[in-house]
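Appendix B, record 7
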Amino acid sequence: MAGVQDCLEIKFRLIDGSDIGPKSFPVAASVASLKESILSQWPKEKDNAPRTVKDVKLISGGKILENNKTVGECRSSLCDVPGGITTMHVVVSQPPQEKEMKVKSDPKQQKCVCVIL
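Structure tokens (predicted):
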């Protein structure tokens, strides 16, 4: 029975409403290791796949979880039911290079041309 309490069943909710998991994680697992698990299990058909752990943010109980914390340390913000599955929301941020490219390309797309007749 003690082994069951040392692990949590966690599923990860993606922005489109689909899920990765649920999968069992020890309470000693770091948030960074959860993110690595997400990267390895990311659905191949999804376009917005994160490239690194830094591209992923995990949110549980309205709080962004820090990489250096363990699941046990974050437990107060986890919305889990005893014996149930904890759901964490996954947010993927774009790498800075892609953001810069979009900002640079936006003014070109928003050019206004006036014609006086």
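Remarks on this record: Residues 34 and 94 are 19 Å apart (CA to CA). The beta strands are 7-13, 19-26, 56-60, 63-64, 85-92.
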